[in-house]
Amino acid sequence: MKTKKMKLYDTLNEYLEYEKWWVFTILMSVSGFYGAFTYSIRGGIFCNAQTANFVLFAMALGRAQWRHALYFLIPMSAYFLGALLSEALPRSIKKLGLIRWDTLLIFIEMLVVIFLACLPESAPHQISQVFINFICSMQYNTFRQAQSIPMATTFCTNHVRQTGIAFYKALRYKDIDFLGRMLCHMGMLAAFVFGGIISVFLCDRYQGKALFAALIPLTIVLIDLLYADLKKEKGDLYKVPHGH
């Protein structure tokens, strides 16, 4: 028993704090919040991922609705820019030797949330769309694997796919590890739905101010990652996370 406990402890130590499953789960719930927020009260646009926007873009082109098609270029371009910057900035942040990029990203995300929550309801919806697309793109490109399991923190498609794959393999190979993977992905889906439910409930009552609620889970993650960077994992600031 002691040997197994030590092995489990050593395995967990292989991962940085921001690669822990619970961090991904919290971020997934926040993304569900964003998705319901932008679709319900900020222009009916999906900002967590871009597949739906490309479909709507293609439909607008097919109907020769040129101005409407251009409208979808706004979230798509913001998502592109977020991916670009999240790939370029980590190297510069790492050279400072203070905190990791993923920690700084959560702080930036919180600033964006505060800014958007303070906007008047009369502000153009495109402002919220651009900023949420931007931070979702950076988050998706930064948080890639939860304890070596490929994960997405901003959309559900891959989690549904991985749930089906893991379920089949668990049945075929009678391997409990696949069952564990299936439960991990199902947990992500549940977290996303939960975030969306909370978002709709709050948006119906508080409109844009509902976004302040997203600061609660983000603060929890930020405090944990700061502690890891400044104390627990201070010597691992230059360690490359899994999946990067």
From TrEMBL:
TM region(s), chain numbering: 21-37, 69-86, 98-119, 182-202, 208-227
Pfam families tied to this protein: DUF1275
Keyword Transmembrane helix assigned: yes
Signal peptide segment: none
Alphabetical list of InterPro entries matching this protein: DUF1275
Domain of life: Bacteria
Protein name: DUF1275 domain-containing protein
